[in-house]
Amino acid sequence: MKILVPVKRVIDYNVKPRVKADQSGVDLANVKMSMNPFDEIAVEEAVRLKEAGTAAEIVVVSIGEQKAQETLRTGLAMGADRGILVVSENMPEPLAVAKILAKIAEEESPDLVILGKQAIDDDSNQVGQMLAALLGWAQGTFASKVEVAGDKVNVTREVDGGLETLALSTPAIITTDLRLNEPRYASLPNIMKAKKKPIDEKTPADYGVDTAPRLEVVKVTEPPKRQAGEIVPDVDTLVAKLKELGAVA
Ligand code: AMP
């Protein structure tokens, strides 16, 4: 089995984002960037399938600026075999990303494409679904468990009120939810080994995809500041305050 894992370079989840003064977006100058956390989960799942002898090859793909190469190296250090970097100085929108990934999937013919359920920078939650539609492949989104059983892949999804299990025919698209697994940290020897693994460099034009934006960001603003709290001296005062606010009867 061959697995393709698209990984996005995003602002690190520990960083508090700052909005640019002109409200055109989030300020990314000198900000720590990392692999999208859901994509780490996707790489981990692929590596576990390889360790179990189910998968033979894992290819990581990133679309973005040249520095996305570091994100690919992280995936390679976790256990992927090779990378494809599609260099685009402006971050393409989800539809363009899905179109590029569809071309790569046609070229590489993976059995599974495992993506994150969403990228934490713009929270689109679109690429996996669009990719499945463009390719006409089965999809299991928000996976909390993945099991390969014969020629099917069983994907358990957390839905309102319980768990739903889908049996997908391959090739298929899976998107990862938070509880699927806990990604490993790459060991130092594996980080060193990853430097020698091959990364192919491409451009969106190589896949005939136009990445011109179709959406216009009107403005980006900070969330409203939280109001200051109040410290009360004892429980009686707390209860009285809550009654005053109508929070308790
Ligand atoms: P989104 O629909 O943008 O929230 O992203 C969902 C998933 O698509 C991510 O978790 C990644 O697996 C993949 N993805 C999105 N953008 C990119 C990108 N620029 N490069 C590689 N993978 C991406």
From TrEMBL:
Protein family membership: Belongs to the ETF beta-subunit/FixA family.
Segment forming the signal sequence: none
Keyword annotations of the record: Electron transport, Transport
Domain Electron transfer flavoprotein alpha/beta-subunit N-terminal: 23-211
Matches recorded under InterPro entries: ET-Flavoprotein_bsu_CS, ETF_a/b_N, ETF_b, ETF_beta_N
Superkingdom, natural source: Bacteria
The keyword Electron transport is assigned to this record: yes
CDD domains in alphabetical order: ETF_beta (cd01714)
Native source species: Pacificimonas pallii
A Pfam short name: ETF
The protein's name in its UniProt record: Electron transfer flavoprotein subunit beta
